[in-house]
Amino acid sequence: MKDETLLMLPGPVPIPERVRAAMARQAINHRGAEFGDAYADIVRVLKQLFGTSGTPLVISGSGTAGMEAAVANFGKGRKMAHLINGKFGERMYMIGQRYASETRPIESEWGTPLDLERLTAVLEEGCEVVTMVHNETSAGILNPGAAIGKICREYDALFIMDGVTSIGGDTFRADEWGVDVAVVGSQKCLAAPAGLAAVAVSDRAWERAVENPPYYLDLPSYRKNAAKDPMETPYTPAVPLFLALREACLIIEEEGTEKRIARHHKMAHAVRKAVEAWGVGMFPRTDDLHQYSNTVTAACIPKNSNDKEFRGIVKKFSIQIAGGQDHLKDKIFRIGHMGAVSAPELLATIAATEFAIHKTGHTVNESGVMAAAEVLG
Amino acid sequence: MKDETLLMLPGPVPIPERVRAAMARQAINHRGAEFGDAYADIVRVLKQLFGTSGTPLVISGSGTAGMEAAVANFGKGRKMAHLINGKFGERMYMIGQRYASETRPIESEWGTPLDLERLTAVLEEGCEVVTMVHNETSAGILNPGAAIGKICREYDALFIMDGVTSIGGDTFRADEWGVDVAVVGSQKCLAAPAGLAAVAVSDRAWERAVENPPYYLDLPSYRKNAAKDPMETPYTPAVPLFLALREACLIIEEEGTEKRIARHHKMAHAVRKAVEAWGVGMFPRTDDLHQYSNTVTAACIPKNSNDKEFRGIVKKFSIQIAGGQDHLKDKIFRIGHMGAVSAPELLATIAATEFAIHKTGHTVNESGVMAAAEVLG
Questions:
Q1: Is the confidence at residue B2, as pLDDT, over 60?
Q2: pTM of whole model > 0.90?
Q3: Does B1 fall in a domain?
Q4: How many CB pairs under 8 A join A and B?
Q5: Which among B177, B139, B185 is positioned nearest to B159, based on CA atoms?
Q6: Which three-class secondary structure string do you get for A188-205?
Q7: Across the interface, which of B30, B64, B239 has its CB nearest the CB of A215?
Q8: Do A146 and A290 contact (CB within 8 A), yes or no?
Q9: Burial class of residue B179 (count of CB atoms within 10 Å of its CB; 0-12, 13-18, 19+)
């Protein structure tokens, strides 16, 4: 492990050596074949992961830049509805407030299912754009892409979906579900370094693109440049990150999309079994197993402990898990299981977490390590 | 040279191996001491290069993102004047049009000095924000930062200056000149990979920051997060690029700011001497030597040749120089001399360019290689 901390977070995640090595390349001209080929490789693989026939456009910026590009290019001056059951749903709402003519937050408590009835009511009143976070890492909940897509189509509203922490790790079918704008971040399930976002846009949405979005996030301009041969970006791209993401995509292609998603499901299943064995309780307030995130698991910190103590014990093993954000601090811990990690990292993490549970005075029902091993073995 | 093309462009530029190696680091948590220390190192060095007591804020995005952050946070809803004598001046104007209540372009022909009288007239009419590109690489001209800063102060207008291709390679004194917002890009004189921009803001400008800029480019939010200990960014940063830029800054610190600028001036002097020896003519239309760029030299392609042929010959030596942009295509060529490059790269480039001049049927007055060597030796 050298001086490396194992990051078992809902991103950033450990980056395979091949991917990191790709960044050592000397500077290249970003308006040439070598760069264009890298971009084309990225697009080929991302199309599979997004489940779209469109071209995912790559922005040099974080997942938030991708989300803002979606909202700014398709929500500006329009009535927007924001489905919220966690921190990133709230962030979408905050971005919406900078662009929409009117915003309607549809809030559920963090970690509880979305309120589909209220969405329908809001759409009845004439909302034109809906945003949703597919995989809400702040609460470990997976929101129903297909169901919301269907409702949006019924009301002819554009559907913007944050797939930042699901695309590449869980099933995502933009075209089939009726997602008009989908966004992924590089440092999550794709296991590439942080700093790139990709945005895929439906034909229906392109027809409704607004005028004068922010210059740097002008998606029609990204589209025009991506159509060139060799592929280009409108402004100087973060070249090393493109080369790294290309390598990460090639690794994904070698593994195969379905196998990769199955691996993530298996990891999620293993962690849930451990949580069950510990008896600390899952955080998401749902009985629908399909609404548990498959890329991050949120569970409750034993009542007699707190975030600093609990994660501090885990950290002694050079393993970093996540705590709760905002009002969930000291209440939950979160184990990320996305990207390139697999059984060894997961077993170590579960062992360290179980140790923290013991040390903070909680008696587990049975061994979470053994329960997880049963799934992973 | 392996499979590497020597990029003698006005960015991207060759990246030292130490800088590229810094990116191989395994993913780290960007809300921790290791990241914060890297950011702090960057800021310490950039303050010197910007000539400011303020804190340059680093955005994960290209120089254009930095320019848009400047315009969006300080020009939104205001009357803006845009000084233009090249492509990047035009870009600033285009960005201004997305934010300003009114825009006044003050255009000079590309490569000719700016029109200070018209600027004064426009300011008399009540313009609140002025933009200028310090080093206009499209034309190889250096615009007068101090003079424009003085005029802006007289009229109490905010002065936004694009230092994307001058900061780190030429004299830049933001505080002394009265520059309110200055921007640099990572892949130019700093010799780091593309993908980061840094923005320094005067106290006077902070007091006039607008409400609701784009979410991703919200500078007050960058400021707030940079004030934390350890330093942070509001959204997930492009971590490998920060680590690379930190290493690039340490190299700059080792060289020393003054020595670095002197090296750039010497390189510029050498290339100008070569152009003089060739007799092809400098492109910038000015007799004021101080208005020649010190980081890129623009000269005329021999009349009987064109861009493709001319630069094609240079490329045979695995050296890439730049052509003219937009209407200057086929008219000029540009040699970048910024960042980490020095005598060897420059001599090779001048030799290859002289060969192209010969091969396209132009007889040089005397050897440009010898003239440059005289300066560099």
A1: no
A2: yes
A3: no
A4: 178
A5: B177
A6: CCCCCCCCEEEEEECHHH
A7: B64
A8: no
A9: buried
Q: Which of B26, B235, B244 sits opposite A64 (nearest CB)?
A: B235
pLDDT given for residue A3 in this prediction: 66
**A12 close contact with B: CB closer than 8 A:** yes
Q: Do B103 and B172 have their domain in common?
A: yes
Count of domains for chain B: 2
Q: Three-class SS of residue A132? A: strand
Quickly count: other Cβ atoms within 10 Å of residue B142's Cβ.
Answer: 26
Structural tokens at position A230: 């060799």
Domain region containing A105: 17-255
Q: How far apart are the first and last CA of chain B?
A: 23
Residue A188 lies in a domain: yes
Which of B:233-252 have CB within 8 Å of A? 235-241, 244
Residues B231, B265: one domain?
no
Question: What tokens were used for A375?
Answer: 């799934």
Whether residue A234 is found in the same domain as residue A314: no
Q: Which helix (H) or strand (E) holds A321?
A: strand A319-323
Which residue's structure tokens are 């004439």? A126
Last residue of some domain: A223, A255, A287? Answer: A255
d(CA A77, CA B123): 32
Convert the pLDDT of each residue in B232-266 to its tens digit.
999 999 999 999 999 999 999 999 999 999 999 99
Q: Domain boundary residue among A223, A239, A255?
A: A255
pLDDT of residue A1: 41
Say whether A239 and B195 touch across the interface (CB within 8 A): yes
Q: If phi over 0 gives left and psi between -120 and 50 gives alpha, with beta otherwise, what is residue B318? A: left
Nearest CA in chain A to B10: A29
Is B66's Cβ below 8 Å from some Cβ in A? no
ipTM here: 0.96
pLDDT level of residue A2 (50, 70, 90 thresholds) = low
CATH number, residue B161:
3.40.640.10
Say which CATH number the domain at B306 has: 3.90.1150.10
